[in-house]
Amino acid sequence: MKNSSRTSSLIQHFKREWQIYLLLAPLVIWFLLFLYKPMYGLQIAFKDFSLFKGVDASPWVGLEHFRTLFDSDMFIRAIKNTFIISFLNLLIGFPTPIILALMFNEIAQGKFRKSLQTIVYLPHFISLVIIAGIVINIFSPSTGVVNLLLQKLGFEPIYFLTQPEWFRPIFIGSGIWQEAGFQSIVYLAAIAGVSPSLYESAVVDGASRWQMMWKITLPCILPTIIIMLIIRIGNLLEVGFELIILLYQPSTFQTADVINTFIYRQGLVGNQYDVAAAAGLFNAVVAFVLVMAANTISRRLTRTSLW
Amino acid sequence: MSQVVLEKIVKRYAEVDVVHGIDLTVDSKEFVVLVGPSGCGKSTTLRMIAGLEEISDGTLSIGDRVVNDVAPKDRDVAMVFQNYALYPHLNVAENIAFGLRIRKVDKAEITRSVNEVAEILGLTNYLERKPADLSGGQRQRVAMGRAIVRHPEVFLFDEPLSNLDAQLRTQMRAEIKRLHSRLGVTSIYVTHDQVEAMTLADRIVVMSAGRIEQIGTPMELFMNPVNRFVAGFIGSPPMNQVKATIADGADGSVARISDTVSIPLSRAEGLAAANGQSVIVGIRPEDVLLEASGGEPSVPLDVNLIEPLGSEALIHASVGGEPFVIKTPTHGDISHLNDIKQFHVDVSRVKIFDEKSGSALYQADKAVG
Ligand SMILES: Nc1ncnc2c1ncn2[C@@H]1O[C@H](COP(=O)(O)OP(=O)(O)OP(=O)(O)O)[C@@H](O)[C@H]1O
Ligand SMILES: [Mg+2]
Q1: Probe residue for ligand 1, chosen from B9, B12, B44 as the CB with the greatest number of ligand atoms within 8 Å
Q2: Alpha carbons B97 and B75: distance in angstroms, whole number
Q3: Which of A28, A75, A96, A222 would give a disulfide with A180, using CB separation of 3.0 to 4.6 Å?
Q4: Per CATH, which fold does B4-228 belong to?
Q5: CA A187, CA A101: separation in Å to the nearest integer?
Q6: What are the residues of chain B with a beta carbon less than 8 Å away from any beta carbon of chain A?
């Protein structure tokens, strides 16, 4: 009795709100098709996968591939590199757009500020391949701007992109150059949402611009910063491996090879799909744990959370 | 010591003047209220005093200093904003302490001042709360506390009560008045609510379109409005304004409303009037007699609607086709009000305005000055 009335009210609900579900449908279908359906294939991480037998018919091997992975120095190195690069990226790359936004906010609205903003947004719209091309050009040993400058100053030219110790600074730097400006838009929007009377009140109270930035702007956009941080931590292991693939070479693998580039080489180049799937699964589980932890900690500490 | 003097203050936005040379002296410890319709430049004037807007022209002095080019923080004023401007990330105590912290006041002194102010405003139990967890009235109090705690020379209020409901507004109004008499700080208060203006002000400044129409005590403005604008703005419901023509009567000049109805002018008014001049007769809704007590001129009317307010009722009527409102005591019974066919005018309370200029024919203060 109760059940049927609930069913009928559900039908009523769909009749009334069907347009909303229609709008939702494409996204749900996309998720099912491209994110959930492939999950079926994840089982090959636990199987001795053979292209000819197919996913279902391949025999189970349990944690065999994981054992292989963790016995491999290359995989351990990839994990280490992933964490080092992500951590540095977070440490330097995360605050940069916030600082940029605060700086823009101090410049009076006008032509100068608009041009400046356009200049820092621009790299975001350039294809990664071109970004990589530009980076390779700039650091080229014979014609690169940096080396020409070094030579002018009397130093020996350095072939930056072949030297492991230079890879991380160059990679992280070019990532920031490309995205920091665009990421600052979120913070600029948050700053624009702060009520002007807060600043006026502070002005009457005698606050300097510096004090207003620290005591009003930053605390008021803190919720936005935290949300962005949670998202960022969730994607911590997605270290923009496309750019790594475009910039690294065997001589820099030592500092440049990350889990995703490792998976790419194992799976697509080495045809070891099952091992690559195991590495991918490991990556996903770690990312999941990270985002859960970040969200929980943030909810406890600041009452701000994604969900 | 903390007088505020505005001399020919002008505010210009890109060639458009929005405040046209205001002259105003606010005495030490005085409570002055700026009223006027929306967009007349009240906030702009207040913000120029605070230093949040640049003064385009004229001289502003606070105390005995000219402060045109003095930074807001050095003017020793505190401002209470309409939306309270509380810092959402700070609790009540920190919000109140903000101005003192900025000024690097000693920690113990801050705690002492905050507690004292919280005591005055009844916020002692809320000091740990964030603004989001307070009611509208409590937020308002915190905003006041932030101003009080600094012991400024001048308080500036920009419509501080307009976000509150009617009951709370009445209550906070009384509280502001009590605070002012306790602290005795020069205060300038902006509102568009004339009841607030009447109840709070030592003197009211009525503004319209960037100009001052009249400055005076609430009763002066009520009894002797210098023009039709002030007459229509002060008093609720506003003064009725009926067209008339000046003519010779049996005993001096009269304002003739219709062939049968004439209002005799006072001697002073008679001297200022010219025969045939078009004028407006201003009659307050409460200055109307329904029963003649002897000799008052009577005016015929058609009753349209009765609005009972309890002890009083508003009669919405028309006189010669023009709307006319009467406020009358009900003595608990409104049934007879529909049958009213005429009213009597207490001629001693009538104001006469020139129709063209809108100025009162006879202005008591002008006659003296
Ligand atoms: N930045 C500006 N540029 C041009 N005109 C402005 C600007 N700021 C305000 N004004 C104009 O100045 C006039 C006075 O504004 P003000 O805010 O002082 O009005 P107000 O009397 O406080 O009205 P309200 O009761 O609605 O708050 C308005 O006509 C407004 O349009
Ligand atoms: Mg205003």
Answers
A1: B44
A2: 19
A3: A96
A4: Rossmann fold (3.40.50)
A5: 6
A6: 50-52, 72-74, 77-79, 81-83, 85, 87-90, 98-99, 102-103, 146, 150
